[in-house]
Design goal:
CATH class of the largest domain: Alpha Beta
Distance between the termini: 64 Å
Number of domains: 2
Shape: elongated
CATH topology of the largest domain: BirA Bifunctional Protein, domain 2
Radius of gyration: 26 Å
CATH superfamily of the largest domain: Bira Bifunctional Protein, Domain 2
Number of strands: 18
């Protein structure tokens, strides 16, 4: 049985706050009313079952002393009542937990209320938009001219949004990934390559389900046992969230910091028709991701949140890219998040910004689902969890190509990448 993502006691005591969280994140507040009604049904059945069990135990003690016909009949009647009630309680409990899974996390007070990206708040920018003294190319033209990727043959093999990385496109992508990994490893993060084939429970634990099932690639379905559905991971966050699932951690070991490297798979159904050109919005790419487990303290989570963002900003600065940091509003932050920053990087070919990182506080939303707790002096507590993008392969590749293109068609490699890439410039192909 999965654990809830929001404490039922908090929901009982603060229904207005939870209803507002549902509404502000684009969901009907009626789910809270339905949940609380189901909670009452479940608790009433539970009390009846527990009362019958207590009565049965008392009767069993009496039967040990003497086995009269009256006592035997009472025992038989009690057994029948329990047999009738227990399946009803199991169904009520199942319905209760299904409703619990539909309750989004409650945003922090500093999160702006808004329906979409228009409600996001710009926190700061770094660098400036480039002014070219020539007619710049977009990443599709640059990648084609320099033979860095092949979209046409990618579509032939993989369908819409398929692509091949080639030549310096491969090496530059790997250089970006290594830069991200090395940066976080130097900050004390444990490097991980997690499984990309994940059970359904892993997606539930991360909060991807029940809301985002259509966005994931399902590999197989078992009608008899939904626990054995398998999906391709959309991010290393999903499996890393469940790395300590079902475990009790030691307070002295916190925080635990992981940096995961993995391929990522996304159907992008909700973005059909958007960014159809090039490799900005694709079904598969590589990514370096941070996941942190810390104490159940909002202030500590906020501090860790800012630190994680700092690391990703430093990487963007190392790549000499102009970007802005956005505080996401309630309607644009996702169900599991209590607070979220996005880094949006300037991409000249789009004549606009594109998301290259998402930094999220999830409080105990995921740890309740995954049942990850830690021992304190005052008992067990659910940990807080955070996640943040370190480096997404295709989008940073786009930003680097378009930002650092030169008049002669070459690409100047940012200094921080040269040791990984092995040269300072990608030269145009000789005709």
């Amino acid at each position: 049985m999965h654990f809830s993502m929001v404490d039922i006691r908090f929901i009982r005591d603060n229904p207005k706050i939870v209803k507002a969280a549902c509404e502000n994140k684009g969901h009907s507040p009626k789910v809270v009313e339905n949940l609380l009604k189901q909670d009452e049904v479940r608790l009433d059945l539970l009390r009846k079952v527990e009362s019958l069990k207590a009565e049965r135990n008392k009767l069993n003690d009496e039967l040990k002393k003497e086995r009269t016909e009256t006592l035997m009949k009472q025992a038989k009647d009690l057994k029948k009542k329990l047999q009738d009630l227990e399946p009803t309680l199991r169904q009520a409990d199942k319905t209760f937990h299904e409703l619990m899974l539909q309750i989004p996390n409650v945003p922090f007070k500093e999160v702006p209320i808004g329906k979409d990206e228009k409600g996001n708040k710009k926190m700061r920018t770094w660098g400036k938009k480039l002014k070219f003294d020539f007619d710049p190319k977009d990443h599709v033209e640059l990648g084609t001219d320099l033979d860095l990727f092949d979209i046409e043959r990618g579509v032939k093999v993989a369908g819409f949004k398929g692509y091949f990385l080639k030549n310096d496109g491969v090496m530059l992508t790997l250089a970006i990934m290594r830069l991200g990994l090395d940066k976080l490893i130097s900050e004390g993060y444990t490097p991980m390559i997690p499984p990309t084939i994940n059970r359904r429970t892993i997606l539930v634990n991360s909060g991807q389900l029940p809301w985002g099932e259509k966005e994931g690639y399902k590999l197989s379905t078992s009608e008899a046992d939904s626990e054995n559905d398998y999906f391709l991971a959309g991010t290393a966050e999903w499996p890393l969230v469940s790395y300590h699932a079902g475990e009790i951690l030691k307070e002295k070991d916190l925080p635990l910091k992981f940096v995961g490297f993995s391929p990522c798979y996304r159907r992008e159904i909700g973005n059909y028709g958007k960014d159809t050109k090039g490799i900005y919005r694709v079904h598969e790419f590589m990514k370096v991701e941070q996941v942190v487990i810390c104490k159940a303290d909002d202030d500590e989570s906020r501090k860790m949140h800012e630190q994680m963002l700092d690391y990703t900003e430093e990487i963007h600065q190392d790549l000499e890219l102009h970007y802005r940091v956005m505080l996401m509003c309630t309607g644009d932050m996702g169900e599991p998040q209590a607070k979220k920053y996005d880094i949006e990087t300037w991409m000249p070919g789009r004549n606009g910004y594109g998301e290259t990182a998402s930094d999220s506080i999830v409080t105990d939303f995921q740890s309740r689902r995954a049942n990850i707790r830690y021992q304190t002096k005052n008992g067990l507590k659910f940990v807080h969890m955070l996640n943040n993008t370190v480096a997404p392969s295709t989008r940073l590749l786009i930003a680097i190509l378009e930002t650092h293109q030169q008049k002669d068609g070459s690409i100047k490699i940012p200094k921080a990448l040269v040791p990984y890439f092995g040269k300072k410039v990608i030269e145009p192909k000789k005709k």
